[in-house]
Task: structure prediction
Amino acid sequence: MSVTKAAARFSKAHNTEAEGVWAAPGRVNLIGEHTDYNDGFVLPFALEQSTWVAAGRRDDGVLLVESLQAEEPVRFDVGSLAPGGSGGWARYAAGVVWAMQQAGHEVGGLSLVIDGQVPLGSGLSSSAALECAVGVAVDSLYALGLERAELARLAQKAENDFVGAPTGGMDQMASMLCTQGHALFLDNRTREVEQVPLDAPALGVRLLVIDTKVSHAHETGGYRERREQCEQAAREIGVPMLRDVDLDGLQAALEKVSTEVARRRAKHIVTENARVLDTVAALRRDDLAEVGRLMVASHVSLRDDFEVSSPELDVAVDAAMAAGAVGARMTGGGFGGCAIALVRDTEVDAVGAAVTKAFTAAGYAEPGLLPAAPSQGARREA
Ligand code: GLA
Result:
């Protein structure tokens, strides 16, 4: 058990018990991709896989972060945290403390022992899981009394401004606010959330995450470029954000966009927002065939218009659909990472086998198959 492992390592390293153990999950997005930084809609759910943090305060102003998955502890001075420094993976933890300080909260020294069980670099938000687990731990230990949504905002600030990855707000909101048996319908403009029941077994289906084992990094390259292209399109259309364009106004809006690439990016965002709303409506009436159709349409749009899929993701989706999945799409930022398939529970093995076979035939590494059930968001565990 990760909770006991993190706590045991803490007491061994610090000769005293941790004051508590907190956890926050990774997430997978059912639909609504690259919409979050356009003020749009998303529909993620939390994974069972989480990151655990055994934590205790210290009175010497040191932030000491160690991980069961890393060799060396990383030491920061709480009084002089600054963006852009060294510290590797531990910057995601330090960034949360920094963001809290920036928001005017008093945070002193801390010892943190991390046990991260969310696969890294797979698009399942291992970074948000780490940030959010640290967020709830520090909030509790220093009695900050922050709301979940505010903790999510600070975790996102850590990632954007301390680590320097220009990601949107979906992952941290999902890790903080998801509940078991539900997907989280999030409006990224108002930050309003609705818990949408997603009890797959009761509906006779399963959610299968397919890890292509091709990793991605959002600090660089394609992700940042997509954001800029969306901003360009919004500017030329004359709206604050692409969220402000709806399907009815799409054609007229696209005519104002000067480049063909930015037009396709904008088309993806506007149609994807509509697909999220349609998916929520379809889930509410248990119309899984429609959910599946929308997932595939999302994938096609991400592949052709937004151009963030990869050959491995396309093979995963195509093989899953050919083997009888109800729906499938890439999930997360893209350029590698995972796909998600909605599969009848009698066909899970057949779909998994078909994807594995297609990967072998294409000469790719064996994919990871991860059955996922909507799980609980950030919490105190001990
Ligand atoms: C990454 C980012 C999210 C979101 C997705 C794409 O996961 O961290 O904020 O933009 O990509 O939907």
